[in-house]
Amino acid sequence: MHYVSLIIEFLRGRPVVVFWTAALTQAALWTVIPALFYSAPPGGVPILLAIGHEFELGSYLGPPLAFWLGEAAFRIAGSFGLYALAQACVVVTYWGVFALGRAIVGTRHAVLAVLLMVGITAYTVPSPDFGPAMMAAPLWSLALLHYWRAMGEASRGAWFLLALDLGLLLLASYAGLVLLVLMVIFTLAMPRGREALKHPEPYIALLPLVIVAFPHFAWLWSGHDLVLAGFDDAVGESRFPPWLMLCLALLFTHAGLMLLVALGTGWPRRPRERAPEIDRNPTERLARLYVYFFALAPAAIAVAIVVASGHPGPFDRVAPLVVLSGLAIVVLAGDRVLLYRERLVSSAWLGLLCAPPAIVVFGLMLMPWISGKDLAIAQPAGAEGRFFADSYQRRIGEPLQYVTGDARIAPLVALAAPSRPHVYFDWAPQRSPWADVTIMREHGGLLVWPVPQNTTLPPATLRAQFPDLVAEVPRSFARAVQGFLPLIRIGWAVVRPEGPAPAKP
Description:
Blueprint: H1 6-13, H2 15-37, H3 45-52, H4 65-105, H5 107-117, H6 132-152, H7 158-172, H8 176-189, H9 191-196, H10 201-204, H11 206-233, H12 242-252, H13 255-265, E1 277-279, H14 285-309, H15 325-333, E2 336-338, H16 342-370, H17 381-396, E3 402-405, H18 409-416, E4 422-424, H19 437-443, E5 445-450, H20 460-465, E6 475-477, E7 488-495
Parallel strand pairs: 3-4, 3-5
Antiparallel strand pairs: 1-2, 5-7, 6-7
Helix pairs in contact: 1-2, 2-4, 2-5, 2-16, 3-4, 3-18, 4-5, 4-6, 5-15, 6-7, 6-8, 7-11, 8-14, 12-14, 13-16, 14-15, 17-18
């Protein structure tokens, strides 16, 4: 008698339950683990909140939607709200792929596609680092779903949903331009697409698309130099060219997916080895071309753009580019999918789901003892923000309104301080048009910088912009798990408010 695992039985009998269980379990893990164990938001979240706090129409990091929603989530529920927002984006991405898969390959194979996406790293470990790429992923999947309904299934009303998706996608990331161009190409290349263009809905739908995206692109008319300079800075100091880094990111983000596929094929296997079968109705040729085209073309175009431009631009994170990878594998597998060694595959899938958050927790506990690396998510942001905000208010008698200094410490202090002060980017003043030296002198503020063991001098950039600053005694902070790491020493100085200059007679 052939053994069939419980997951396979559920997949055959309750595929929708399997989808929601997998998606919500992953979301819960990557919401609760960061909320409980991260003492500081990961990656670029502090800068995202510093920019989102101003509700600008754009910044040097691109369109504003992710910054606005990130700030709103943080105001409502703090860091937990931000992590929940990031995982909501992942769940909506999975649902978009699931709904598209149901229309193309049926419910059970659509669930297989989503289960494979658990092996795509872009939607697991980096997902709490909320940003434009994470915001773009669900809008990308919804756009692909509504485009198929509009073009592939001739649902003429879906053009308006597609226009809304694309408009919001362009407000989330410039990577959306790639999807927009590819949709135009696919529509013109396919007979069914050209037939759809004979109706008025695709042209009427251009109006809401333009209305949604117009405010930011009007801002971009004067702010394009700022955005291009931000793209140039994204190159960093890597020894490898940006296009190679993008190719490696695309390869390694699929490592878990490739492992599941390799185990599921059972290679090498015995000639008479049996496997449970999950079948579907035949998939039409247009649907197969659709999935292959939008699974492969975005990544290829992104690599070509990075090669031509020399910087990663909006493709520094690959989450929207790999939305259809799991569905493409399922379509390629054919109408009858044989899952060899299903117990081993089930164990590997559960490992990919649960092991990464467990590794993160153990890493936070053990790294300070076995390595000298200072983890960004282990910084005591709350203690730093409370101390500096309280010290400023006791000296000045007013809540802290502006903070500047180190590009990593200043945004952390700003997001953790009770008054949520504005951040002035003294390292790149043109990127924070909401503040400058004059405003800080008028309203007062706080300067912060890291203090190494051999000096207490403020950085030259701060001394040049605030020549009369008087440094306070550096403050030391301990991490939740200190280990063998040195204490975090932060230098600081108070800029006392001068008040507005007297009016000239």
